[in-house]
Every structure is written in C-alpha cells, then in structure tokens.
Amino acid sequence: MRTPVVAGNWKMNNTLAEASALARGVAKGVSDIKGVTTVVCPPSVSLVPVSMALNGTNVFIGGQDVSSNAQGAYTGELSADMLFGLCTYVIVGHSERRSMHGEDDGTTAAKARASLAVGLRPIICVGESLEVRDSGDAAAFVASQVEGSLAGLSDVSQVEIAYEPVWAIGTGRAASPEIAQEMSSAIRGAVASLYSSEAAEGIAILYGGSVNADNAASYAASPDVDGALVGGASLDGEAFSRIVEAFAASD
Ligand code: PGA
Questions:
Q1: Helices (H) and strands (E) in the chain, counts
Q2: What is the spatial distance between Cα 215 and Cα 181, in angstroms, rounded to a whole number?
C-alpha cells in the first residue's frame, strides 16, 4: 500500500516571518490527519526557521532544488548534504527549472543521484507542454522523461515522481482526473519496464498543476495518483490542509 504524499511548493514566496507563520498554520491544520505524508518546500533561506517551527510536528520539509555537485565553487547553489540537515525531500526537475534554467532530464537525473547519495528523497518532476499534448504524444514523451530523469538510479524505492503538465501549472487549468490517472498509469508502466513491477507498485506518483482544495478529492480518487505537488494553493495553510485531508480520506 502506497502512502500518499502531499507536498507544497512555496516557490519564491514569503518572507522569513511569513514562512514560519505558514508552517505553523500547516502543522496545526494537519496535526490530526493520518495516513498521508505532508511536506512543505519553502525557499532555502527559510528552511531553518521553518524547521524550527515544525519541530515535533508530523510535517516534513523539502528543498525546491539541489546542486548535482557535492561541494565547491558553485555560487548560489546548495548541496544535497547541506539540505539533508534540514530536509527529508527535495524537488528536482521542476518545469520552472527546466524552462528557465535550461535543465534537462540528464541534469535532473544527476540531481536525483546526488540527493539519494546522502539520503534525501527526490521528488522528480516530469510533464508535457501543451504542444506535446496537442500532438497526441504526451504519454510517450513523459515515459521518455521518466527514463532520462531516472538514469543511473539503480533503486527507486526512495523516489517520488510528480506528473506536472506544463500547461496546468499556475494556470488554473488543472488536468482532468482522467488525464492525471492515464498519465500516472503510463509513468507507472515506464517504471515497471525500467525496473520491475514491484518497484512500480511501490512508487508514489503525485499529480501537480492547479491542484486546490476543491479539486483535490477527484485526484485522490484516482487509483494511480498517490498525492499532489501543490504550488499556489500551498501558500494558504487552510486550503493546503484540506488538500492533505482529501488524500487521507481516499486512503
Ligand atoms: P500550481 O503549481 O499548483 O500553482 O499550479 C504546481 C507546481 O508548480 O508544482
């Protein structure tokens, strides 16, 4: 049985004080919710205050990005080792990193390998553009992103995959539950052929793209959707807690 994972990607939002307050709000909102792993991913500068605010709660912390290098002259970057002191998870290959920072499947795989090497769990993001969806090749495209983004990983038991169609992120145009289910099932199939059916059955596949408190239950009801990666709605502690609750209720 897969435990659903609901992760909030705060992106570049909130001051230190706002981040701590939001973390406290999330912790309060999900304190009684069982059977779901709740994760918040604040900007790196807020990781320390957020980890203090979440001390003793059932909320985990994730980074939003990580360097593929272990240490050295990489101005502005953070290593997996540095994050591991504060985080359990880290998002890699988010479409904003891919489109704005030129990251590709190879970069994403290198970041995932660096994370796993120190014990951080990567949440590996994949998802097609509108152009690819309209061409009818979305499932094959995403399967190839999965293969490229898992390159060199011998074991995926400590990995989550997030299916985030680019056209649904921050647009209010969420993918239908049918699309989320169909694509998650295609991703699971890709993992089965790359690894094994046991590995595929064990891996949590999250949907991301305009998830909110009102539509979360429809994804939670989809058999191959095992959680959500939430952007905008994760900045509202109450809405985010309701999304976590939707995945608990479906368990
Ligand atoms: P959104 O972002 O929920 O604001 O669409 C999702 C994401 O980028 O992870």
A1: 11, 8
A2: 14
Amino acid 251: pLDDT: 59
Which of the following is catalytic: 96, 103, 160, 164? 164
Q: Where are the domains of the chain?
A: 5-250
User: Residue with the nearest Cα to atom 2 of ligand 1?
Assistant: 231
Q: What is the mean pLDDT of the chain?
A: 97
Task: For residues 213 and 217, give the distance between their C-alpha atoms in angstroms, rounded to a whole number.
Answer: 8
Catalytic-residue membership of 164: yes
Q: Is residue 250 over pLDDT 80? A: no
C-alpha–C-alpha distance, residues 92 and 97, integer Å:
8
Catalytic residue among 18, 94, 101, 147: 94
Residue pair 247/216 in contact (Cβ under 8 Å)? The answer is yes
Average pLDDT over residues 118-136: 97
Supply φ then ψ for residue 47, to 5 degrees: -60, -40
Give me the percent of the chain exceeding a pLDDT of 70. Answer: 100
Closest CA to 207 of 164, 177, 245: 164
Query: pTM for this structure?
Result: 0.97
Ligand 1: lining residues by beta carbon, under 6 Å: 9, 164, 169-170, 208-211, 229-233
Q: DSSP of 76-143, one letter per residue?
A: T---HHHHHTT-SEEEES-HHHHHHS---HHHHHHHHHHHHHHT-EEEEEE---HHHHHHT-HHHHHH
Q: Tens digits of per-residue pLDDT, 219-234?
A: 999 999 999 999 999 9
In this structure, which topology does domain 5-250 adopt according to CATH? TIM Barrel (3.20.20)
Residue 85's pLDDT is 87
